[in-house]
Design goal:
- The structure is a homodimer.
- By secondary structure, chain A is α/β, with parallel strands linked by helices.
- The first copy, chain A, has helices spanning 47-52, 62-67, 71-76, 80-84, 96-101, 128-138, 156-176, 193-206, 222-235, 250-258, 268-274, 306-310, 313-321, 325-351, 355-367; strands at residues 5-13, 16-23, 26-30, 32-34, 58-61, 90-93, 106-109, 112-116, 123-126, 142-144, 182-187, 210-213, 242-244, 263-265, 277-280, 283-286.
- In chain A, strand 10, helix 7 (156-176) and strand 11 form a beta-alpha-beta unit.
- The longest helix of chain A has 27 residues, at 325-351.
- The first copy, chain A, starts with a strand and ends in a 9-residue tail after the last helix.
- Chains A and B meet through helix 4, helix 13 and helix 14 of A and helix 4, helix 13 and helix 14 of B.
Chain lengths: 376, 376
Amino acid sequence: MIFVMEFKVLKTDGSARTGLLRMARGIIHTPAFMPVGTNATVKAMTPEEMKEIGAEIILGNTYHLSLRPGHEIIRSVGGLHRFMNWDRPILTDSGGFQVYSLSALRDIEAEGVHFKSHVDGSMHFIGPAEAMAIQDALGADVAMVFDDCTPYPVAHEYALESLGRTLAWARTCKNLKKEGQALFGIVQGSAYRDLRIMSIEGLREIGFDGYAVGGLSVGEPKEVMHEMIRFTGSLLPGDSPRYLMGIGDLMDVLAAVEAGFDMFDCVIPTRNARNGTLFTSIGRISIKRTEFKADEGPLDPNCGCTTCKNYSRAYLRHLFLTREILSMRLNTMHNLYFYMEFFRKMRDAVSSGTFSEFRKKWEGVIRSEPGTEEGT
Amino acid sequence: MIFVMEFKVLKTDGSARTGLLRMARGIIHTPAFMPVGTNATVKAMTPEEMKEIGAEIILGNTYHLSLRPGHEIIRSVGGLHRFMNWDRPILTDSGGFQVYSLSALRDIEAEGVHFKSHVDGSMHFIGPAEAMAIQDALGADVAMVFDDCTPYPVAHEYALESLGRTLAWARTCKNLKKEGQALFGIVQGSAYRDLRIMSIEGLREIGFDGYAVGGLSVGEPKEVMHEMIRFTGSLLPGDSPRYLMGIGDLMDVLAAVEAGFDMFDCVIPTRNARNGTLFTSIGRISIKRTEFKADEGPLDPNCGCTTCKNYSRAYLRHLFLTREILSMRLNTMHNLYFYMEFFRKMRDAVSSGTFSEFRKKWEGVIRSEPGTEEGT
């Protein structure tokens, strides 16, 4: 049998935990942040730079890559790892969420979803079988089941019907699981506790290598999101990795780690970087602010990234205002480094039993951050 | 006396020559290609990468930097080198050409030029005194005189009048020359041989550290450009560096090196890279071409750049079509590496007395290149 993955919890601090996820292509320390490489590239970064900042796993997108360049092209040139020159693990999102959030037109059937490409308006179909075939062509280390994501709010009746589809599709995906590839199930059920329970029970019955929670951060209030994070976190099996999909706001991450989640992905650090919003030890700041015009200090004196070691706030502001490509590079490098460091320190805190102090400290920083609005 | 620069011709092959330009911040091997860093950044590249590919000097722009972020801001944070983290020589264009080519409205007076900023439409004034003050604030290693660039075609009478201004301004610049900064004169005179002679004689009388030829590649036919390259090349002093401004098409570079020019700058490699036109050992190719869709080979098997070592044509095409930032990075890295290698091999050819073979070989490659139009 081919080795797929092994997950071991190392330390716990309340429900928070650190762990090791061993895969054929490398070890992932959890709680782990997985930078998003939608189009077979983490925007603005090279794979070498991703390694420099300590990324152990990245995300790819079934939806995007099946449309451009096409998964069969990626298969024909040796798979996604070789295509993008990344030899560490890759987790691929199944496309369920993107079909929900990106395509203009969606027609859901029992077998899958007809949708209109956001690229050129052409019609496509993805169901569980297609999602598994695409993720096989890409050569993902971790595949995700194809799920039906519901909007918020949604009627209980519709959420139940949708969950039925998601569970049926999860079973199909499990039946099509490829040897050597890990497969994670996705918990749905909107904000309904009974449906979340039903979803988790259904997935456990099928059996997966890991369990993800989806269908959050789709418009619900933060209290609802946090309640669902706590609720699902307490019910997910403890001996498998727990992955909170698409959520990367630091306040949410802290709540989720406290609830026992192990894996995260989010475009926040990369997208914010391109918009000039940068994470620092005193909170987020907008590099546009006029006060940085002639500021020769580093963006964050407490940061060890190449951006902070080599460039001034004045220079970063100038690059941003002149829309230079280097602005997106240096900002992305910094924000991703910040996230990797944040997760590293968070793991240390869990290991040493000081996670609640860590959480309190960072919640204080975030609440008092200078803000991101442009100064005058 | 502060050491400014020393130029030594090493080898000649006909009128072509190799040389060493020693400056306080580093040695420049000539013929030299100077990548353009308009806004205090060579677009898409870090200074570390510029060093990796062997860039020994880069260009900055007086016009752009005086508008954004403002030269006094750059002075206040320690000068352009520190601002952009580049410790090798910088040559700054005086702004004469940009005022001519970029500003919507231009009003030329005896003391300088009133112009409308291409950024925000505000009115500004640059004359020789202002250009020297700006280049001093930036801390350029090589400053250029502020010149009046004429359009093509232009009446002899107007070109003569304009040349009078350019020479008067050159004298003012020389009088304001800062200790420790080299200053190059700029030859104007459009396509009129008598005016080019007059310009060169006037500049030699004033005396400069180097001599540049401007006012070409402004719309004149290639034959006229090449005739002026040969003509001015033969008249410029042989013991100083000869700089052909803004010209970097390889056919033109080959003609100019044959005519004895030593220094070049051009946005062609960087701009073409961003447009998907890539230089290779068989000529320029468009990375968009459909034939590259599933091509796992490197862009150029004869190239040693990091792009060619790590990525396939299929991947480069995909990144370009999805407009990823990494596309601009990898393409720029490749094109600049190609240029630096081209110049290195050209210097070797001059050194070994085989420049005319080198020129013939490359003219053959360029004439038979696969072309840059998109395939279907």
